Amino acid sequence: MRDASLVVIEFGASWPRWLDPAQRATGDLAVVAQHYEGEPMSLVTQVASRITRLDAGGWDLNTVVLVTNARTDADAFAARAVLARGLLARMASVKADRFVLSIDRALEKRARHSLRMLAGQLTDEGAGSGVSVVVRMGHYESVAALSAVG
């Protein structure tokens, strides 16, 4: 098994500046970027397919980063929640370490609030999983209310 991280980027979201691939101490890095604006749920299918291929290649995903865009409509929030819950469940099943929800700090307050709400729900639902749920807004990491789950 190869230690690895997965970065999932929603359509319109930017690579998180705090995550420098060149500075990674260990492990590989896989990326799934939604390059077209389609149905929000289409990203769920892309991520599931990529994880299947990574598993087949012997990658051990210990960290997942979900980079979100500014959309806060019901369809986008529902798709993001389905994706995040699926990722968290998978991470818990393989004893992964850290799930990071990331958003550009420059995006509107409503988008940042929506992401914090999702993180709170994930923390409550994932209690006891052993996966740490973290929110990153720019260079700032919020772990006070979302400390290690479990």
Give a short summary of the structure:
The chain is α/β, with parallel strands linked by helices.
Question: Mind explaining what this structure looks like?
Answer:
The protein contains 3 helices and 6 strands, in the order E-E-H-E-H-E-H-E-E. It has helices at residues 42-56, 74-93, 109-125; strands at residues 2-9, 28-33, 59-67, 98-103, 132-137, 140-142. It has a 6-stranded mixed β-sheet, with helices on one face. The model is unreliable at 143-150 (pLDDT under 50).
Rounded radius of gyration (Å): 14 Å
Order of strands side by side in the largest beta sheet?
Answer: 2-1-3-4-5-6
Give the uncertain stretches in residue-range form.
Answer: 143-150
- How many H/I helical runs? 3
| Quaternary structure of the protein | single chain
Intertermini distance: 25 Å
Sketch the topology as an H/E string, one letter per element. EEHEHEHEE
How much of the sequence lies in strands comes to 25-35%
Instruction: Summarize the amount of helix as a percent range.
Output: 25-40%
Q: Output the structural class.
A: alpha/beta
